[in-house]
Amino acid sequence: MSQATSVDTSLEQFHGGVVAGAIIVVLGFLAILFPFFAEISVSVLFGALLVVGGTVHVGHAFSVGSFWGVVWQVLLGILYGIVGIMFLANPVVGLTSLTILAIASFIVDGVVEIGWAVAGRGNRRWIWLLASGILSLIVASLLWVGFLATAVWAVDFS
Predict the structure, then answer these.
(1) By C-alpha distance, which of 54, 51, 101 is closest to 76?
(2) In whole angstroms, what is the distance from residue 97 CA to residue 47 CA?
(3) At what angle do helices 35-61 and 91-119 cross, to 10 degrees?
(4) 11: buried, middle or exposed (CB in 10 Å: 19+, 13-18, 0-12)?
(5) What is the pTM of this model?
């Protein structure tokens, strides 16, 4: 038995998508014009999400069932909460932490892609995967070399 799915393409939904897209474009231009404020906003948002995540972990801990499960969930929730409060208390420090995470992400991505490329040398286009891995490592090293200066804008583009 097959079911046909239909996509609602009403005019109201189209206009809603256009309005949402226009708002995103305006916010993107504002982030380009004022990168420091955009970064601080991201840091504050991330801190708030960590605090909420910590609260959820602590609340969920008591439904885990085992003693050690409860302990680990509560400890993880406390860690999330502390880090989130630190981001909220000093967003600039949070911003540098996010830049370090971006650098680590580029390093891991580069190493993994180079490993996949080496493992798949017999496949077509493996060289592009190798090039992507090398470029990821180059970006990570450039961000690291200019760390304090790149902390202001690096998270927007990673």
Answers:
(1) 54
(2) 11
(3) 80
(4) exposed
(5) 0.59
* C-alpha to C-alpha distance for 45 and 49, rounded to whole angstroms: 6
58 by DSSP, 3-state: which?
helix
Give residue-wise pLDDT tens across range 103-132.
898 999 999 999 988 988 888 888 998 999
Structure-derived torsion over alpha carbons of residues 128, 131, 133, 137, reported in degrees to the nearest 10: -160
What digits encode the pLDDT tens for the residues 55-84?
Answer: 998 988 888 778 888 888 899 899 999 989
Are 111 and 120 spatial neighbours (Cβ–Cβ below 8 Å)? no
The residue written with tokens 């038995």 in the block is: 1
Q: How many residues in the chain?
A: 158
